[in-house]
Automatic annotation (TrEMBL):
NCBIfam families referenced in this protein's UniProt entry, alphabetically: TRAP_S1
Protein keywords: Signal
Protein name in the entry: C4-dicarboxylate TRAP transporter substrate-binding protein
InterPro entries on file: DctP_fam, TRAP_DctP_sf
UniProt-listed Pfam families: DctP
CDD domains to which the protein is assigned, alphabetical: PBP2_TRAP_TM0322_like
Keyword Signal set for record: yes
Length: 271
């Protein structure tokens, strides 16, 4: 796999991120107006303050350095990167992680929190690190409930037949949209606005902060509050990078990731 990443970087399909072990580049597909960004700023400030800037954190929004999947592969190859990502994408490497994106798995933040702080989840995270080289720094970044965003009014499941809905290209997400009656259409988050505007797709599904942050309300007509998925994400980086840190710095990074993950939760409630 590392050889494959090297080849892709050489050919220009993946852009590498350079820096030493004391530098961490955090990437998200979200915009700086999303509440999650405030959490990432808190993470940066917390880590740099606690380590006296022995660890510098740089933040990149809007998938500036590549898609979430690209960054995960860079992390697996040992790059000093981390990405805010959902369990569905991680299911490729650790199948059980896909459960976190299952429809109607939990009702609200309190129930979601029980899952991602459980001993069962911690065992999955340990296996993800050992088998795939991906380190979960924290998985308490709750973004809210996902709803349908469409050009047409949706009152009944039959109204979704033949409707092309953008979703994340992970099995559990694809099957969820298919079960709702629509046609799942994987697409990068940064492409959703233009795809809706040009009617390449008929709709999408997102949590309110994501809809607001990416201004999707400008290119849709209806929001159907299905709350079909509680979107919980994690800050996931390279196990190789993390293992090179001192024990003290490892504790700082994971503690600050958890504290920062708590911050956006209340922000999502204002939308």
């Amino acid at each position: 796999m590392k050889l494959l990443i090297f080849i892709l970087v050489t050919l220009g399909f993946i852009r590498p991120v350079y820096g030493g072990v004391n530098e961490l580049n955090v990437i998200t597909s979200l915009s700086s107006s999303d509440p999650m960004y405030q959490g990432l700023l808190k993470f940066k400030q917390g880590v740099e303050t606690a380590t006296n800037k022995d660890i510098i954190v740089r933040i990149f929004v809007g998938s500036q350095l590549g898609s979430d999947n690209d960054i995960l592969e860079q992390a697996r190859a040992g790059a000093n990167v981390a990405v805010l990502v959902d369990g569905g994408r991680l299911a490729i490497y650790q199948n059980e992680m896909g459960i976190l994106g299952a429809p109607y798995l939990a009702s609200g933040l309190a129930e979601v929190k029980k899952i991602v702080t459980s001993t069962v989840f911690n065992a999955w995270a340990a296996q993800l690190s050992q088998n795939a080289g991906l380190k979960v720094l924290s998985f308490n970044w709750w973004q809210g409930e996902r709803h349908l965003l469409t050009h047409k009014e949706i009152n009944h499941p039959d109204d979704l037949i033949g409707v092309r809905i953008r979703t994340i290209g992970a099995p559990v997400w694809l099957e969820t949209i298919r079960a709702l009656g629509a046609t799942p259409t994987p697409l990068g988050w940064t492409e959703v606005y233009s795809a809706l505007q040009q009617k390449v797709i008929d709709g999408a599904e997102a949590q309110h902060p994501g809809t607001w942050g990416s201004r999707l309300y400008e290119v849709i007509t209806y929001i159907t509050k299905t709350a079909h998925i509680n979107l919980i994400s994690g800050l996931v980086g390279s196990a190789t990078w993390f293992d090179k840190l001192s024990i003290a710095d490892q504790l700082i990074v994971t503690e600050q990731a958890f504290l920062a993950g708590n911050l956006p939760r209340n922000s999502t409630l204002i939308y």
